[in-house]
Structure formats: C-alpha cells, structure tokens
Design a protein that fits this description.
Length: 153
C-alpha cells in the first residue's frame, strides 16, 4: 500500500499598514477641536463603501475616527487628558450593508496634555488679587504673574 505525504508550512499573515502618518500623532489640546487627517497609502477608490474603526485601544472621549468624502481622519473635542494608544482599521465592503472585508491597520498614539490652569479670585469677584494654580504648583516667595481681567462688576 502506497502512502502519500505532503508537508504544509503555515505563516502568519500580517495585515499591511495603510497610513503614511507617523505612529505618534500631534498632541491635541484639552477641550478644543482636534482634527488629524490619516493619509492612506493608496487612494480610497470612489464608489466603494469604506469603513474605519478603532480595532483596539481607545480614543479620548469626544474624538472619533471618520471618513469624510474619502478622507479618513480622527476628529472631535477631547474631554479627557492623557496618552491614548489605539489601532485604526480601514476596510471596504461591496455595499453599505455588507460586512467589510480585508483592510489594513496601523497603531497610533495621541497625547492630550492636562487642562490649562484655572484662575480663581482670592476674595470676591471684584478682587484684584488672583491665585493661579496648575496641578498643585505653589509659587515661590516673590514670584509674580501678570493677569489681565475684564468684565462688569
């Protein structure tokens, strides 16, 4: 009796990266609108249904991944501070209801620095002396800050 033997080699197939952006995106500003275009390696062909999703990790609250007129981006107003790591997947489908197929991914990091300092009056709303604090910073004796305030009493 003859036997036939065949050897198969399995290779892990890596999903290609699909954006030319650096992995570290420019910082966002807390509570300000942020937009960063994600430049695809290839042109997003018109007539296809393109999908963009956060595959792993998370974006800051208030920022989403979107495709507008064939241009992928992340945008919104962050209400969180910190460093966020996430992977974006872009894929296409045959129509707007079909499951997306294939696609490519890229990992990104986005930093949103802490909120800016808050000015609070020491005594009352019409006080001329203000305390400026930032993350628990205590000014040294003799340090001053120039503060301009305006408004009706």
């Amino acid at each position: 009796m003859a036997t036939c033997k065949q050897v198969f080699t399995l290779e892990e197939k890596k999903v290609p990266e699909c954006f030319t952006n650096d992995s570290t995106l420019p910082d966002a500003v807390y509570n300000s609108f942020y937009t960063q275009t994600l430049t695809p390696v290839a042109t997003l062909e018109p007539g296809n249904y393109w999908n963009i999703a956060v595959e792993s990790g998370s974006l800051p609250s208030g920022i989403i991944a979107t495709i507008d007129f064939g241009t992928p981006s992340i945008q919104g107003t962050s209400t969180d501070s910190g460093t966020f790591s996430f992977t974006i997947r872009i894929s296409q489908s045959t129509d707007e209801y079909a499951e997306p197929t294939g696609g490519c991914t890229k990992a990104f990091t986005l930093t949103v620095p802490e909120a800016p300092p808050v000015l609070t009056p020491q005594q009352s709303l019409d006080a001329t002396t203000w305390t400026i604090g930032y993350g628990g910073y205590e000014p040294e004796s003799g340090e001053t800050a120039n503060v301009t305030a305006s408004g009706a009493n």
